[in-house]
Amino acid sequence: MAEFKRIVILTGAGISAESGIDTFRSAGGLWEQHRVEDVATPEGFARDPGLVLGFYDMRREALARVEPNAAHIALARLEREFSGDLLLVTQNVDDLHERGGSARVLHMHGELKSALCTSCETRSRWERTMLDRPPCPVCRAPTLRPDIVWFGEMPYQMGRIYQAIEACDLFVSIGTSGAVYPAAGFVQEARAAGGRTLELNLDPSDGSHLFHESRHGPASVLVPAWVDQVLGG
Ligand code: OAD
Question: What residue owns the CA closest to ligand 1's atom 15?
Answer without folding.
Answer: 14
